[in-house]
Amino acid sequence: MINSKAIGYITANYAGTEASKLIENRPVASLPFMGRYRLIDFPLSNMTNAGIRTVGLVMPGNWRSISDHVGHGKDWMLDRKSGGLFCMPGNPYGTTKRGMRFLLRDIISNRELFERATTPYVVMMGANIIFNMDLDEIIDAHERSGVGVTMVYVKAERHHDDASRLIIGDAGRVQSIEAGCEYGDNKFIDCFVINRELLLDIINNYANADYLDFFEAIAGDFARIDVCSYEYKGLAIGIFGERSYYQRSMELLTPDVFDQLFQKDRPIRTKAHDAAPAKYYAGSNAQNSFISAGCKIYGTVRNSILSRGVIVESGANVSNSIIMFSCVIKRGARVENAILDKNNVIPENTEYRGTPDAILVMGKGARH
After folding, report:
1. What is the CATH number of domain 6-261?
2. Which of 124, 297, 339, 345 has the lowest tally of Cβ within 10 angstroms?
3. How far is CA 281 from CA 274, 278, 297, 300, 322, in A?
4. From 2.160.10.10, 3.40.50.2300, 3.40.50.2000, 3.40.50.720, which CATH number describes the 279-362 domain?
5. What pLDDT digit, counting tens, does each position of 77-124 carry?
6. d(C-alpha 346, C-alpha 333), whole Å
7. Whole-model pTM?
């Protein structure tokens, strides 16, 4: 199925709202998630599951990890002669605020994507709020409404959320967008549909404000442009820093929560890797964990998420932790309440332990 109504635009060219060792050398969009995925997999999968076969991906300056992961888009059915995945250059952040997702300068400099399209709509998404949504429903609702822009939101389930909130008036019209969410607010999930011709008009009319976020630039014209809202009733997970990354990952170890994000009829696709299944040796013990292919488990793993190629040696114990690619937990070592980035080696008979309120985070490739 090819969606004849919309093309896609995904931005990966933005910094996180918090500094972190996890994104010192990679963009937010390529952050590993649930062992085998990266955050970029979710917007790509949402679009391809809806039949969108032309997708522009705006790359950050530190683009290499995203490029290595997505390639030509084959794993998302985007390696096509007509349409396909277009990896487009992003602009330097300059004086823009951290966390600004839809930089108008990027949209303007990649206007050719929108000019060449023949579809009436563009679906635009970020990468650090992830969900598994039927985009066809959003596109159809936008078409029926006859408005210029439809912004998708959920009801915020937590206090002190770093997402933006929508102020919504009569008939679902968006009056403004503000930073920060509290419980019950209308949390914008960085997904919206816009009429392609309107987008081209905005590109032409707002060039002098290209240093702003898209919605900051058009804030004074919400009523004229006719910006509407759509409430999504499913699960939307925001990753804004180490704490939210850890907490949201741990919540997905609960099957009911996991099943809301990973659905058989709308699979989340990722880069294929030829790796043997995880192997559990005599004396090993694994409980309530997500353990990826290529892992070798000799010791104990509880309530944890392990990426490909992790080795937990005999007598080692991993609990309540996220262990990324190719880490080795040596014999007798203990790791608890921690996030270990890839290629870490934990020495024998040592303890690396955080607390639920102060997670221990180790950057890439440390040897201790």
Report:
1. 3.90.550.10
2. 345
3. 21, 10, 6, 11, 21
4. 2.160.10.10
5. 999 989 999 999 999 865 445 557 899 999 999 999 999 999 999 999
6. 7
7. 0.95
